[in-house]
Amino acid sequence: MRMPVLQVKELTAIFDSNTPEAVKAVDRVSFSIWPGEVVGLVGESGSGKTVTALSILNLLSHKKGKIERGEIIYKGVDILSLPEKKVRELRGNEMAIIFQEPLTSLNPVLNVGRQITEVISTHSRISRRESWEKAVGLLRRAGISDAEKRMKAYPHQLSGGMRQRVVISMALACSPGLLIADEPTTALDVTIQAQILDYLRKVMEKGRMSMLFVSHDLGVIGEMCDRVMVMYAGRILETGTTMEIFKTPLHPYTRALIEVSKNISVPGKKLPVVTGSVPDLSNLPMGCKFHPRCPQVRKVCREAEPPLKSTGSTNLKGRVCQVRCWNYTKI
Amino acid sequence: MRSFLTKRMIQTLVVLVGVSLITFFMMNLAPGDPFMMDPEMRMNPEAVARWKELRQLDRPLHEQYYSWLVNLLKGDFGISLIHNRPVLELITERLPATLLLTGTSLLVALLFAVPLGILSAVKQGTFLDKWISFFTLCGVSLPNFWLGMLLILLFAYHLNWLPASSLRTVGVAASFYDYIKHLILPVVVLSTGSAAYYIRYIRAGILEVIGQDYILTARAKGLKESTVLFRHILRNSMIPVVTVVSLSLPFLFTGAMVTEYVFSWPGMGRWIIMATLSRDYPSVLAVNVIVAALVVLCNLGADLLYAYFDPRIKYR
Ligand SMILES: Nc1ncnc2c1ncn2[C@@H]1O[C@H](COP(=O)(O)OP(=O)(O)OP(=O)(O)O)[C@@H](O)[C@H]1O
Ligand SMILES: [Mg+2]
Known about the structure:
By secondary structure, chain A is an alpha/beta fold. In chain A, 31% of the residues lie in helices and 23% in strands. Chain A contains 11 helices and 12 strands. In chain A, β9 (227-232) and β10 (235-241) form a beta hairpin. Chain B is mainly α. Residues 49-50, 100, 182-183 of chain A line the site of magnesium ion.
């Protein structure tokens, strides 16, 4: 059998805070991504999606966070035990990331061309001319007209959608094996969002890349992903194929998210949300972390945290589905 | 760009007229007279009257101001009431010594401040950063006159290693080595304070940029730390540094008054103090107008540099 591109094992990421105990933004999260797969990571704001994404590139220290334990295995190598120099060779080259906010994730004082070509020249020995041409090609494929001219533009001269196309071109510049897209379309309006998603899907069709697609919107996840992981308060609550998650969601939180995503396009109404509020990480409830908001809460939910149980069903490629809920008993 | 420059030129003129007006009337309203310094004159009202007439100080203030302004437009700063020589001549005599001192101090300060500021920001929170912060705090809070006297006491008086005053040794042929020896102590005094000040600005500027998303992007590209620093961080942190440095440039001209005084430096600073104390109206006016002009010019320079460092800034 082939190997997963990425295996995350028991990842725990913490932030030092003023409270006596460090805040655990990600708590014992494990998952794998297989070649050619698009895996969705969904959850409300603050559930730990970005922290997970940054941990995979081992960049969390730059956000003042720390990986307390766990393994991040990329193509068989644990990157957390690699020297920084080796990890740098992977970043931008083998593993690339697209951030949420296209304006702030581009350097305001360097032109677009410079920012794309610098990834190319960092990871391959090609001439300036060639990397320039390569960058123009990337922009063109990403749907930027006048690509030659845009290369000399500064980020503030471009629209939000264009900036995100630039960011995506930067991420794809070295044909990475794994693309992490951290809410790539959240900051964009609906039509641009559709175009960007289309482009990402087209890139995936070549089949050489895998993707971790992060979003708080199950609707978008449903369009993009083969499999979904539902995250809540730094934990995974449910995993399954996109089909199964939408057809037979097992966790009450997943069901709530689906309800929310169905209502999203009602104009004139305020954005629907799951009732209740996201728990404070420094003051998590006992037992199941979702129980204060859960419509099916029972006594046991308040007392002990349910384990992540395999549901027995496996998808076509033989990957297990899991759920973390006391209400779930094997049928 | 052209209309921006025109606008700034008009602003400059307004500022200069304003500064000269205020200085002129403040000086004349302040108690004391130029002849106070001369005991013989003070005793002789007739002489005073004659002198005032000669210097046209007996005319109404607005007439005096007007004729001063007209002369200024001809490039004439007037004649010093104390030295009886053209003010411009007095300035050109003293300016080189001051520029030597203040310019060297600025260079030395930047030479230390830039690397130390970068270092303490990059190593934020470490032992090194804490030490640098401690020394900058000391540097900012030590008064120049006190540090100057301390250094004189130690290196000139007790150890006798370095001269305590003046620009060069009198009676000895001027030599480069001699100038350097005289420069060391005042330069140390002057650059300590400003270096400490710059370090804080540079550190704060860099720390602000380091937290930005695009720096994370740069790291996610796999760039080396040095590339991230020099290409992505430094250029974005230049603006506050450009601001403080360009705002301190006008004071290269006035010299460091206190420090020049402590070290008997034959420069502008000491002369400005004397001119003010002795109510030498034309000299004080000239200095104020020149400094005001320099401040405005340096501000303009800073604005143009901003546009160079940050493409988002455009002037119209
Ligand atoms: N720099 C930080 N310092 C302290 N705590 C942090 C920091 N970044 C994240 N956290 C903590 O980690 C939790 C998860 O943050 P994360 O950014 O991963 O959320 P997210 O799921 O990406 O949310 P969003 O949809 O808003 O992007 C936050 O609730 C916060 O408590
Ligand atoms: Mg996020």
